[in-house]
Amino acid sequence: MNTPLCNFVRAYAERQALRLHMPGHKGRGIAGAAYDITEIPGADTLYRAQGVIRESERNASELFGSHTFYSTEGSSLCIRAMLQLIAQYARRCGRAPRIAAARNVHRTFLSAAALLDLPVCWLEAERCTAYLSCTVTAERLEEFLVRQEEMPVAVYLTSPDYLGNMSAIPSIALVCHRYGVLLAVDNAHGAYLKFLPESLHPIDLGADLCCDSAHKTLPALTPGAYLHISHNAPRSFAEQAEEALALFASTSPSYLILQSLDALNAQLAGAYPGRLAAFLKVLEQCKRRLAAHGFPLIGQEPMKLTLQTRPYGYSGTALAALLEQQGVYSEFSDPDFLVLMASPDNREDEMARLTDLLLSVPRLPALPDAAPVCLPGERVLSIRQAMLAPHETVPLRVACGRILGDASVSCPPAVPILICGERISEEALACFSYYGVEHITVVAED
């Protein structure tokens, strides 16, 4: 597969032109500077693409089987664009832009809902693993939809979630479409799912639109990402995708990130699927060894290794610290979990080293399950009203009864413990304290 954007920038760099355009380094002095350009003639314009960027996006679209658009600002930009597209579609159809969502959304969802003034109704989960995972089943979703006097225009899910749990997208998509509801998926952690021996990508499983963070699980520069729109989605989505992205995007996109997405197409069309299939076997062997030794593993996502650490006698944070002493850095840890993200660019000997290190950790008496239940709070203000109101930051100890003003999160992974606009209860305070939050942003009182 060709790489038109990389080819253009490489030829420009080799020309050694006199650069009287941005950026100020003029192609000299810092790593990668020769290939760091702006929207000069021939380089095309992101979000009004007609040349090399559009050709590269067509290549990505062919690979993913969708209408695919690039983001140089991560899945955060794509989430905002998805909500804008849904809102435009709803208003065009004469419907309220109401979205039903699982509560473990990324904080970007909340800020986008606030900016777009979208009403959000929260789905009741089948089960919740702390605040990070809220599994919504097709059966529970249908029960919710049957009760609605006004049907939401879309359902919004995060799958895979931060712990590697995956929603049953095919059955959920069937329920959504039976009720005339769109399905949008935050697939930030699952770009690689398309390239498994059997695709588990949301678009292939029935989602109408989704976002992928290419940089999280594919060999792309941070924060390269994709907005994917199904060929079965409303036609307006693909027609207005660039406009929706441009509404929130910087007018100075990184051409280094764009080139990494362009170069990635050639890898995805070439050796990457085979490398991924081979590495899956390596990772499965690691998982089997750890499970046999007594480490509880959770999640269905193939490339994520998530340990539920308390039964082994450690907090996730303590186990992460032990690994860090040996030069191994995890993706995320908290009192309950240790999350390790691998890819085919990890070598087999590195995965063996990780496994040996974990197996060398002595097992201790199990720690009691101490995670508080994160219950929904009383809704006092809309997300928009709460986020755009005057705020103040107060110590946790005096926050009971106040209204949460911002998406207070344990970051990463930027999943809200409580939703802004909800009243802070004693139970919510226990959750914040458990996850290390000491101060909290609340709506200012008169």
Short descriptors:
15 helices, 4-stranded antiparallel β-sheet, 446 residues, 7-stranded mixed β-sheet, alpha/beta
Descriptive overview:
Helices cover 38% and strands 13% of the residues. It is of the alpha/beta class. The chain has helices at residues 4-15, 52-64, 74-92, 107-116, 138-146, 169-178, 202-205, 214-217, 235-248, 255-269, 272-292, 316-325, 348-360, 383-388, 426-434; strands at 67-71, 99-101, 120-122, 127-129, 133-135, 154-158, 182-186, 209-212, 225-229, 297-298, 304-308, 332-333, 337-341, 391-395, 439-443. The strands form 4 sheets. It has a 7-stranded mixed sheet, with helices on both faces. Helix 3 runs parallel beside helix 4 and helix 5 (138-146) packs parallel to helix 6.
Q: Can you tell me the residue ranges where pLDDT is under 50 for at least 5 consecutive residues?
A: none
| Largest beta-sheet details | 7 strands, mixed
The whole-number mean of residue pLDDT values reads 95
> How many separate helices?
15
Overall structural class, as computed from helix and strand content, comes to alpha/beta
**Proportion in β-strands:** 5-15%
Order of neighbouring strands in the sheet with most strands: 1-9-8-7-6-2-3
Overall shape: it is globular
What is the gyration radius calculated from CA atoms?
23 Å
Distance between the termini: 61 Å
Total strands: 15
Please trace the helix and strand order, writing H or E for each element.
HHEHEHEEEHEHEHEHEHHHEEHEEHHEHE
Helicity range of the residues? 25-40%
